[in-house]
Amino acid sequence: MSGFKLGGMTLGSVFKKPETTLYPFEQKVAPKGLRGHVAISPETCILCGICQKSCPCGAITVDKKARTWEIRRFSCVQCGACVRSCPKACLSMETAYTKPATGKSSHVVEVPDTKER
Ligand code: SF4
Ligand code: SF4
Q: Which of 21, 46, 88, 100 has the lowest tally of Cβ within 10 angstroms?
């Protein structure tokens, strides 16, 4: 690369908008379809366990007796297999990433008993 071309590129970058953002004060808008984290609508879950069986990482545990749906977010690789396999379409992929944490905690969601309502 010639010195002239390199000089032109350097000078051009001085006047261009920076490629980086001042995170966390300035945050980029997540593109549509970004696989951030799995979310559940527990009201429609029937605790069938298909999501647990379809997860290649064993990140989901469905406890029918305790009426809980659990995900270990730091084991999840955001493949979306559970979302695609859920027969009740109660799982979705939200764009926000799992927040950083010091421990590998899991997220337990209580599934309400629709028969009690
Ligand atoms: S989230 Fe969907 S696939 Fe998983 S247990 Fe509930 S209904 Fe079944
Ligand atoms: S997105 Fe993939 S890895 Fe994450 S819980 Fe669902 S099936 Fe498992």
A: 100
83 in contact with ligand 1, CB cutoff 6 A: no
Amino acid at 107: H
Per-residue pLDDT of the chain (117 residues; tens, 9 = 90+): 677 788 887 888 788 888 888 888 888 888 888 999 999 999 999 999 999 999 999 999 999 999 999 999 999 999 999 999 999 999 999 998 888 888 888 999 999 997 755
Looking only at Cα atoms, what is the longest distance across the chain?
A: 76
CATH class, range 30-116: alpha beta
Distance between CA 73 and CA 106 in Å, rounded? 6
Please give the DSSP secondary-structure letter assigned to residue 3.
H
Tokens of 31: 């593109």
Q: Which atom of ligand 1 is nearest to the CA of 91?
A: 1
Pairing of strands 37-40, 107-110: unpaired
Domains in the chain: boundaries:
30-116
Ligand nearest the Cα of residue 109 is 1
